[in-house]
Amino acid sequence: MTAAATAGALARRPGDRGAVRATTEPAAVRWALTAAALAFLALFLFLPVVAVLVEAFKEGLGAYWAAITHPDAVSAIQLTLQTALIAVPLNVVFGVAAAWAIARFEFSGKSLLITLIDLPFAVSPVIAGMIFVLLFGAQGALGPWLGEHDVQVIFAQPGIALATTFVTFPFVARELIPFMESQGPEEEAAALSLGASGWSMFFRITLPNAKWGLLYGIVLCNARAMGEFGAVSVVSGHIRGQTNTMPLHVEVLYNEYQFSAAFAVASLLVFLALLTLVAKRLIERKAQREADPTPPAAAPAGRDQPPPLPS
């Protein structure tokens, strides 16, 4: 059988006569693998989420509302949102610029740039936080100069924003680079040949074509920014009501044996994770629909045929 015939046989729908199954494993093996995957998800994903929600509402809605509206909790929520509003736009600007440069141009240092983009994936967040302490701390390389100019980075919001930006900046770039490389430069070259300026081509051709990859990267970047713990824990100083983000506030409450309040604030992060998954799925579905539009159904033979020409 030729390769084309094999591909055609595998492409038949399950209801077609003579359809070939893509897998040859026995049904027992398939059911066992499916059951193992579901058991793993239930043990390590579903049960923890359910446990957090049960503990959060264990003492009633009144206690839940009191926990998430406590002044320290409100301060942590505000700081988390402010940090995300700083880190995500910065990463969007860097990610779009880096992805466009890598996907469209050849230059010396391109491999080095790709390696640097992946650096936060290889470095522990705690080590990243320590790097910023060594740079901007009171005894760090820039600490004396910052102290003379009354600028505080470490144990303040600027340090939290810097650490969060460092930890999250690969997400947008890493989503856009393969997206732009798969599209190719043909449409951009056509726009330039028709007299479009570079900025006009970028905003009318490049960004619209990469919008789903960009949105996907923004969703992941925002989720990581709001849930970051390690790097922020090092640079924040754990000043309650001032430099505690939501994950740090959960840790403080848990260490003080305020379990209901800790799980109440943690449930907000759970809801954020669920919204992230929903947004991720919607973006993937819309991107898939645009990439593979369903072709119109062919008209049945003998119908809707043009009338014969008069003799």
Explain what this protein looks like in three dimensions.
The chain is mostly helical and 311 residues long. The chain has 16 helices and no strands. The protein has helices at 3-10, 27-56, 61-68, 71-104, 110-117, 119-122, 125-136, 143-148, 157-168, 170-183, 186-193, 198-209, 211-227, 230-236, 246-255, 259-291. Helix 2 crosses helix 16 (259-291), helix 11 (186-193) runs antiparallel to helix 12 (198-209) and helix 15 packs antiparallel against helix 16. It is globular and about 65 Å long. The two termini are 48 Å apart. Mean pLDDT is 85; it is low at 1-20.
Low-confidence stretches: 1-20
Radius of gyration over all CA atoms, rounded? 27 Å
Report mean pLDDT, rounded to a whole number.
85
- Taken as a percent bin, the fraction of beta residues is under 5%
- The best one-word shape is globular
Structural class: mainly alpha
Number of DSSP strand runs: 0
What fraction, in percent, of the residue positions are helical?
Answer: over 70%
> How many alpha or pi helices?
16
The main sheet comes to: none
The H/E string reads: HHHHHHHHHHHHHHHH
Q: Could you tell me how far the N terminus lies from the C terminus, measured between alpha carbons in angstroms?
A: 48 Å
In short:
This protein is mainly α and 311 residues long. The chain has helices at residues 3-10, 27-56, 61-68, 71-104, 110-117, 119-122, 125-136, 143-148, 157-168, 170-183, 186-193, 198-209, 211-227, 230-236, 246-255, 259-291. 72% of the residues lie in helices and 0% in strands.
